[in-house]
């Protein structure tokens, strides 16, 4: 049975691609169409696609000139891909603490981590809540927005991902829109866009920052004297198959985000007034796009495993806790020095992430019933 996330347009575009025999680069390709549509959707001059949302961050840092000996400030409470991208660029991730109520990078904590080696700040718009990029920009450093989990979230009316120097998005399977794996960068800076394009495309010098220009026209490389690689780069390009699927998903992005918000509101309403279960706080100047509905569990009263086990016993699908803090992962603990981040350390073992991508109303209702019943049962025990 086909997933509710996949509709007729996805099938139409894939069949259209197969019938075309995989055309070359240009605005007629699905990659070109996707990049152009993405740039328009996010009010950006340039959109450059990538094979995944880690390559996007790697490329963004390189485009900003980050390299060996440099430092990039990141939060520890997120998927480790953010920190790994800093290492891929040859730099050192410096972990700054998060706000205990919003869970996103704290500007005050960032200020305490800046050194003469700091070359960029890479906040994460966690769980769909935009990071405070406007405050972070006051430090005078380039900001790369990791918006993998934040499609159409807003900060002071501005779309998350469009505020910093470069915005990064993911098309991984769990995200608001997907093609299995993939990613996109956006920027209004032509020089950064060209650097992103070249880095994603083996360092080809003849390509353009414009949508769909990730390959050289075959007539331009016919001569044996053709110079191709004028820069250092990887083959990080997004495939035409993934682009076709992602384009169909992008065209219904508003609907997909609205669904996530509605699901999150249902979980948040069910938890209203529960003193031991606190939702992520969304500041009044923000719009949260709710990749997930995140809560902090008072584990002194309700053990994490008890809540998880009871929810499943009541018919719940289950849920994830937060990722282990990046600097507590074994490899990072051994190779990357860090200062403690008390708020992140407090939050990480107490987080629960409720799914927000229920496309079937009855399915959502069954999960809310299980969630409500679990709260009632656990409250009696605590």
Essential attributes:
382 residues; alpha/beta; Aspartate Aminotransferase, domain 2; Aspartate Aminotransferase, domain 1; 2 domains; three-stranded parallel β-sheet; 35% helix; globular
Give a written overview of the molecule.
- Helix content is 35%, strand content 13%.
- The chain folds into two domains: 8-252, Type I PLP-dependent aspartate aminotransferase-like (Major domain) (Aspartate Aminotransferase, domain 2), CATH 3.40.640.10; 254-381, Aspartate Aminotransferase, domain 1.
- The longest helix is centred in the C-terminal third of the chain and has 21 residues, at 361-381.
- By secondary structure, it is of the alpha/beta class.
Outline the biggest β-sheet.
4 strands, mixed
Query: Gap between N and C termini, in Å?
Result: 42 Å
CATH superfamily of the largest domain: Type I PLP-dependent aspartate aminotransferase-like (Major domain)
Name the CATH architecture of the largest domain: 3-Layer(aba) Sandwich
Globally, the shape reads globular
Strand content: 5-15%
| Helix and strand run | HHEHEHEHEHEEEEEHHHEEEHHHEH
Spans of 5+ residues with little confidence (pLDDT < 50)?
none
**Tally of extended strands?**
13
CATH topology of the largest domain, which one? Aspartate Aminotransferase, domain 2
Count of separate DSSP helical elements: 13
């Amino acid at each position: 049975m086909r997933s509710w996330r996949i509709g007729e347009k996805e099938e139409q575009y894939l069949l259209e691609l197969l019938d075309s025999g995989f055309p070359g680069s240009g605005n007629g390709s699905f990659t070109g169409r996707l990049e152009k549509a993405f740039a328009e959707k996010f009010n950006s001059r340039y959109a450059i696609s990538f094979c995944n949302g880690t390559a996007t961050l790697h490329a963004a840092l390189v485009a900003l000139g980050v390299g060996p000996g440099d430092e990039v400030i990141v939060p520890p409470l997120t998927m480790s891909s953010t920190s790994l991208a800093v290492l891929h660029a040859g730099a050192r991730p410096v972990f700054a603490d998060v706000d205990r109520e919003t869970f996103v990078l704290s500007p005050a904590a960032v200020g305490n981590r800046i050194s003469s080696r700091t070359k960029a700040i890479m906040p994460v718009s966690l769980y769909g809540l935009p990071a405070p990029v406007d405050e972070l920009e006051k430090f005078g450093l380039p900001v790369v927005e990791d918006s993998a989990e934040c499609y159409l979230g807003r900060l002071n009316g501005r779309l998350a991902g469009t505020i910093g120097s470069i915005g990064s998005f993911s098309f991984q399977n769990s995200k608001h829109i997907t093609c299995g794996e993939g990613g996109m960068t956006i920027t209004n800076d032509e020089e950064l866009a060209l650097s992103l394009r070249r880095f994603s495309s083996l360092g080809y010098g003849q390509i353009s920052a414009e949508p769909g220009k990730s390959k050289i026209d075959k007539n331009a490389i016919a001569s044996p004297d053709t110079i191709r690689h004028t820069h250092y780069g990887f083959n990080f390009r997004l495939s035409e198959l993934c682009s076709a699927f992602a384009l169909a998903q992008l065209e219904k992005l508003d609907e997909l985000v609205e669904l996530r918000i509605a699901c999150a509101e249902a979980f948040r309403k069910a938890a209203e007034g529960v003193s031991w279960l606190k939702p992520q706080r969304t500041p009044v100047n923000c719009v949260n796009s709710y990749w997930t509905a995140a809560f902090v569990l008072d584990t002194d009263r309700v053990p994490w495993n008890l809540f998880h086990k009871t929810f499943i016993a009541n018919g719940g699908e289950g849920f994830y806790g937060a990722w282990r803090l990046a600097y507590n992962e074994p490899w990072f603990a051994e190779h990357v020095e860090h200062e403690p981040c008390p708020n992140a350390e407090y939050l990480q073992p107490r987080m629960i992430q409720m799914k927000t991508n229920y496309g079937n109303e009855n399915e959502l209702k069954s999960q809310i019933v299980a969630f409500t019943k679990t709260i009632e049962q656990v409250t009696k025990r605590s």
